[in-house]
Structure to design on (422 residues):
């Protein structure tokens, strides 16, 4: 069945939609095989095509030239594109999609056929590194499955089926077994939920080539748990609606920037992205909203692609206010959870809620056996780490209970309920 979709259904679909995916894939592969310097020269050439910059006063290396050219451009955000002026002809010929609006107002995005083909080619490049071809049967872990005729037809054409594992797991376990997917893709929290269901019920999951987690952060111990349950590689994808896949984990666990037509910058305003491929939207120096740490490639996988060494996520909802006036990033809670697991306490999930500026609730999800054996020690350790990383003048309540997931909403391990005025 996979052979039919890979070699017939998907090629016909691309042809009918006018998407030159194969041509784009060859280009992506050629560019991603370049040396790091060669790739930077490619991006510099694209930047020079877009903007006729004045000659630089002195010779600079490639990266310095890129930085100098970028600094002369304005930083953009969603508000810059709310009143995008496209002709009726451009709009009719374009593909469109809309951001979820998690950072404010939703934004409608437009793409040419070549840009969509390029994004699909990048996705194919990533998936193929784990032996998956676009068109293979996919178990998609996404919110509630829509039961309309249109959604069912779409699932059939794309050779995929939606699962959530938010309710009674036996039905979805049986459905997943009958579906026989090649791989799984979707929200990290839902995939973690599925792993917990298989583990608690002691049911052997279907054999998969790879599990690709997206949209939400997973801790290393959670990835290890999913890997142990499903007995297959678990890889993280980093991307967004605006640009699709931005970075993808290699077999060594490093996030490589896989789209050769994207240029990422670190800035005081978070990560800025320039997309050279989207000629309709011209999203140049676009404020993504995430805090990233970028690096030259120093990975043992021998890839020359630039690396993202740290992803802190959206800074607008991830800053923890403290009574002393300081602010820290919520990634500190992830460090606490990681340290607990490194010391042998088997936590499967956690969530921190800041109720007041000096009051926090820490929800910890562990097995019944672990809770009976280690709960007092876990409480002492969490309080110790909390005090060490955030200070002594805080009220902390710790609860051992299942961390609830909300349908259709991304999971965040930190939630702040403190009014803005506080």
């Amino acid at each position: 069945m996979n052979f039919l979709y890979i070699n017939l259904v998907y090629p016909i679909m691309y042809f009918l939609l006018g998407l030159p995916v194969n041509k784009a894939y060859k280009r992506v592969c050629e560019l991603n095989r370049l040396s790091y310097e060669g790739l930077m020269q490619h991006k510099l050439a694209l930047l020079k095509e877009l903007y006729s910059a004045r000659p630089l006063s002195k010779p600079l290396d490639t990266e310095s030239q890129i930085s100098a050219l970028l600094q002369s451009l304005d930083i953009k955000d969603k508000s810059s594109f709310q009143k995008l002026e496209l002709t009726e002809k451009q709009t009719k010929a374009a593909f469109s999609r809309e951001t979820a609006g998690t950072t404010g107002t939703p934004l409608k995005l437009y793409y040419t056929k070549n840009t969509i083909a390029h994004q699909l080619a990048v996705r194919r490049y990533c998936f193929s590194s784990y032996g998956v071809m676009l068109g293979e049967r996919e178990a998609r872990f996404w919110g509630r499955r829509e039961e309309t005729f249109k959604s069912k037809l779409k699932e059939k054409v794309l050779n995929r089926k939606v699962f959530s594992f938010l309710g009674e797991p036996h039905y979805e376990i049986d459905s997943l077994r009958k579906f026989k997917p090649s791989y799984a893709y979707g929200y990290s929290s839902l995939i973690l939920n599925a792993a917990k269901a298989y583990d608690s019920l002691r049911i052997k999951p279907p054999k998969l080539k790879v599990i690709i987690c997206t949209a939400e952060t997973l801790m290393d111990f959670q990835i290890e748990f999913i890997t142990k349950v499903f007995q297959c590689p678990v890889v993280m994808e980093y991307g967004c609606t605006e640009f699709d896949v931005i970075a993808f984990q290699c077999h060594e666990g490093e996030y490589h920037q896989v789209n050769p037509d994207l240029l990422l910058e670190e800035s005081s305003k978070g990560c800025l992205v320039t997309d050279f491929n989207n000629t309709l939207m011209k999203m140049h120096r676009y404020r993504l909203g995430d805090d990233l740490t970028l690096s030259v490639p120093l990975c043992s996988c021998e890839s020359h692609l630039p690396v993202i060494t740290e992803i802190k996520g959206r800074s607008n909802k991830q800053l923890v206010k403290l009574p002393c006036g300081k602010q820290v990033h919520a990634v500190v809670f992830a460090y606490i959870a990681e340290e607990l697991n490194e010391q042998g306490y088997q936590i499967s999930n956690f969530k921190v809620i800041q109720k007041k500026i000096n009051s926090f609730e820490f929800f910890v999800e562990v097995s019944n056996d672990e809770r009976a054996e280690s709960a007092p020690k876990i409480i002492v350790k969490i309080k110790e780490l909390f005090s060490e990383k955030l200070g002594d003048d805080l009220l902390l309540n710790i609860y051992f209970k299942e961390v609830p997931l909300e349908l259709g909403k991304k999971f965040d391990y930190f939630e702040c309920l403190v009014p803005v005025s506080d």
